Amino acid sequence: MAMTTAEADKILADDFAPWVLGLGLRAEALGEDRATLRLPWSDRLSREGGGLSGQALTAAADTATVIAMSAAPGAYGPMTTVQQSTSFQRVVTGADVLIEAVVTKLGRRLAFADVTMTDAESGRLAAHASTVHALLG
Asked: Is 34 helix (H, G, I), strand (E, B) or coil?
């Protein structure tokens, strides 16, 4: 049975550090190998010049990956980030960001994902990440 957005939001609330919760992420859509989260615009997350900070995007990408890797088997399990590489392509100012994590391989001990981060207003790609997580459960 597919994971619901309510279940994904519960994972966010129950299993992430308070500072990650401060990003305001919420689940928008889930599939059997993917999750889309919304990072709402906030002046608190912007850097000098008014653009959304790379740290916020990087944390959002990592968080979306955990939700996608939970949606794949249908439930959350403990995991940890092994590697993440993020490429920033354009600044986002004054707009939410949609973060879509797609699991490309779900092994017994390691899982891999590609993450796209797009400006929710323009639909333009803001950043891309590749991630590897160790599955601990």
From this structure: strand
